[in-house]
Amino acid sequence: MRWENLTDSDHARAAGPALFGADAVTVRTFDTPEFRGVTFHEVRARSILNRVPGASRMPFEWTVNPYRGCTHACVYCFARKTHSYLDLDTGLGFDSQIVVKVNAPELLRRQLASRRWQGEHVAMGTNVDCYQRAEGRYRLMPGIIEALTERANPFSILTKGTLILRDLDLLTRAARVTDVGISVSVGFTDAELWRTVEPGTPAPERRLEVVRTLGEHGIRCGVLMAPVIPFLGDEPAQLRATVRAIAAAGATSVTPLVLHLRPGAREWFMAWLARHHPHLVRRYERLYAEGAYAPKWYQRRITRQVHDLAREYGIGPTRGGMPRRIAEPGPARPAEAAATVPTQLSLI
To answer: Taking the model in full, what pTM does it have?
Structure first.
């Protein structure tokens, strides 16, 4: 493995030294059912706050990613390419070789205390899920949330993991002193589709229970409806069922995002498609002939349909650039009621 090439982004690889040294790595396996076949590479990171390149489409400038690789095993995950920097394959290697930054909480606390830090918004879950199964063992997020709360530093979390409810008290405490945004990713409610494309994630209905539970505790939660998968999850009836379930869970907003296929993810997804839906391969090759993104006309059609359904079911679409916010328990003021969660391109 090439630890000297491990950084948090292509930009960082070009601009500076590696985030870890090879002498800072401990390899572990655990003989338990949930971790069987998974190898953990425990590293002591040199930096945990990662600056997003200015050219990025992300609506935030700073991220914290305590893990690399993800046992959610989503076949479409854009972050798969990052494993190639370690000489690991972007398929099964990404799903089963997990890098754990074991010193993330203490390192973040130190970096937030620096005079150079200006208290900017920090986004989490933007590379891989910070509430994947590994978090149940390593428990990095409580320390990370506490460090941000101590500095009243605004932050947001995007997740498919139900484990976030473990930290409900910490999130409620943080929301009293700073802006906190929570988004749950639910692209579809079709059980058969979920089992094949997101085999390591909690079921969609369990994720929607997270949205409901957060709302019951005064924490406003939006849903990133992502990915909408062409020809498999984009029928009008499927979109309606998903938006209806999102509304029933009490989501404050819904943001649709069509599947995109970057290098690394594209090869793995297309191999999966050839095995499970060979009749769709040519249609995908045509739809994604121009690159990683579906054509604008297709994206606009899906967005329009979802937004129309959201209005019908009483939830508003998200508008990019709007602030992420958690309201205190009690009636929301008009300005707060309009606050929603901006589009994120992280887990797809």
So the answer is: 0.85
